[in-house]
Structures are given as structure tokens and as C-alpha cells.
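Issue 218. Parser rejects a valid record. Input:
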Amino acid sequence: MALLIAIALLSASLAAAAALLLASRRRRRLPLPPGTLGLPLVGETLQLISAYKTENPEPFIDERVGRFGTLFTTHVFGEPTVFSADPETNRFILQNEGRLFECSYPGSIANLLGKHSLLLMTGGLHKRMHSLTMSFANSSIIRDHLLVDIDRLVRLNLDSWSDRILLMEEAKKITFELTVKQLMSYDPGDWTESLRKEYVLVIEGFFTLPFALFSATYRRAIKARTKVAEALTLVVRWRRKERETGAEKEDMLGALLAGDGGFSDEEIVDFLVALLVAGYETTSTIMTLAVKFLTETPLALAQLKEEHEKIRANKNRSEGLEWNDYKSMPFTQCVINETLRVANIISGVFRRTMTDVQIKGYTIPKGWKVFASFRAVHLDHEYFKEARTFNPWRWQSNAASSSAVNVYTPFGGGPRLCPGYELARVEIAVFLHHLVTSFSWATAEEDKLVFFPTTRMQKRYPINLQRRNIPL
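Output the parser choked on:
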């Protein structure tokens, strides 16, 4: 029996080796984009991870674009991957979702989000769930239902601030509480804070090698993900029992529980996990970096303060923001646009080729990964003058806004356009309003925030605060 098992294993190994050899020979015959696959197995993954611990905004791609051009081959997270820093190629990838490309992310992200997350869904199910998510984050829903809670929870958090805070940490508390409220109708408390701390560990595991044996960060992330899933499963089960008594809440979880055909607890939990990540991590990063860029650009900060002081002058101190107030923040929208462009709420998207794909004179083999880098385009001087300089005034020009249509993709595009893009903009605007009308601040010189939101930024950007008394 042992001999038979050994023979079977040897046969399987030889077959796998033969398949790899054939694939390698076929690849050599194809006109692949230039580049290098790096070391065996790990490829250039370590270079990718280490690059983003520097202060350079796009070190990994910058170096390779300089050597190979805007379309290059590499090998990251265990797979050969073609990176695109070309806007035309990026649009081609986004628009051909489901035809030439399918959604595909590194194993670490897929494992931590869960197989039923919106990020990994395909086909009709993705279309249905994407539409459902957008229906809970469109302008009318924000105006009529969500804005009051956004305003209330932002003010509640800022009222608790002392004279020195870690802004990134505080921003994450705000966005997590907002997301939990919108998804499950929970107000801030010990339970939400405990859940948030586990989420921090989950997110830290996203860009690691997905092997628990080799990565302590990934092991911690998997354990934290289990705890998050257990906590959310209890909520789902409790809400199912509530529905049986006729009690229903008008939130995302309520819509999932009432969905036609029904979803299992596991499906709902995976869906919530992904939405919590989307609403929590990215928006808080943009909030923090908006403050950083404004602090370093005094003229922009002064103009923003003037805009919001005019809005506050027409209100009682305790009166919250209304939809008309949000729509009367033109310079704030310029600040948000520019922060999104420079900081990049979505750095890019991974896809997998469903067939051999011909583009720009090259062939990307079936089954390969591609990465459409939005950040590389946003920071390219060819498309934005002085691209790595924060300049919100560039968005005041209609000509500049129009010319940026095809190269400005902070929320992705195509069928997978981020469904919460408008909600994120409202949350950032409300946060900036209450920040600039409530406080003056200065950064702590000994711990300044780096340009790019790297892992070094998790609990950084301390600022010293002084409360403002604006005449009413």
C-alpha cells in the first residue's frame, strides 16, 4: 500500500511538473509584456510589500515603469501578474468584466473576506448584490435617512476629543461606528469597539503571504476574522428571531434577511465583513490624509474654513447639517477630489484573464492576474500637472474636470464601481465641517505622517487641538 501511494504521489508530481513546463514553454512563445517574474514561488512579493513601507507614494510601480513601460509583467502573491499604469488599458480591464476578465484577488484578501463577499462575487449574484448595496447608499437615502446619523455620530466623537489625539485612530472609530450603524443599526458602545479592534487585525493580514505557517500577521488575522464572524453570526441569528415577531429594521441587514430566496447566515456574514472593511478602512484614511494635506497647504485650509464658517453662521450651535448645507460646499468637494486623487482610496483592482487577452501588442495568457493601477495614473504628470502636489484648485476649472474624466477613477469603474462612493464623500465632508468649525490644530513635529498611507500610519498623525468659539 505504501508503495502504491508513493507511486501515485510521484505520478502526480511528474504530471504537475509536465504541466508547468508546457505552460512555461507556451508563455515563452507569447509576446508577453516586458518584466521579470523574480524568485521562484515568492516572485517579487517581498519587494512589493517592502516598497510600501517607504515614504514614496508609488515605489514598486515607478521603478518598473521606468524600466519596462506602463504595462509590465511581475509575479506577486504566488501568481504571474501584469501591472497596468496605462489609463486606456485600465478602462479596457474595467469595461470587460465578465467577458475577458473576472474578479480575482490575492489569497490573503479572499480568505479573510470570505467567499461570499461582494468583492469576490461574480455574474448575476454580484449584479444583484451590487444593486442592493447602491440602493442603501444613493443620494436620496443619504439625504432622507443617513445624514442625520452621520452628523450626530461625527459630532459625538469630536465632542469627546482631548487636546491631543491620534487622528488616524479617531477617524477609524468614526467610520467604523458609522458603518455599523448603517449596516446593522447599532449605536457606538463596548460591542462595536471590541469588534473594531478585531477588524484592525483582519485588515493587517490583507497584504501578507496567505500561509499561516510563515506569517504571524496572517495567523493573527485569521483568528481575528473567526472572532468577527462569530460576533456577526450572533447578530444575524438574533435579527432572524426578531423578524419572526414582526420587528424589522430598515438597514442593510434587514434587506439581506428579507431577500428573495433567502441567504444563509454564512453568506450574510461574509457580505457584512466586506462592507465593514470597505466603509471603515478607506474612508478613515482619506479623512486623515485630507487633514494632513490641508495642514501643509494653509491657503486651502483657510478657504475651507471660510466656506464652513458661512454655513455654521446660519445655524444654532446645536443644529445639525442638512442636505442643502452639504450641497453648498463647492471647495470642500475640490478638497475631497484632490485628496482622493493624491491619496487614492482604491489603489487599483485585481482581475484574472478568462481567455488569452491581446492588448497594446502583447498577449496576457489565460488564467493570469492583471492589476489595473489607478494610483499610478493619478500620480502621473502626463495626466495631472504637478501630479504629486496637493492642489484642490485644479478642480475649480471645468476644463480640468472634463479632461480628468477618463483618467480619474478613485472609486473604480465599470460594473464594480464602488457602491458607497457618494456616502464616503458625504462622511468626509461632514467630518471636515465639524473639524474646521470646532478646532484649530497643529501637528506633532516628532511624528509626522508620511506621504502615502502605509502600514506605518496605523496609529499615527498625532495633532494638538484647541477648541474654537465661532461667533453665531
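Fixed in the parser; the record now loads. The radius of gyration is 24 Å.
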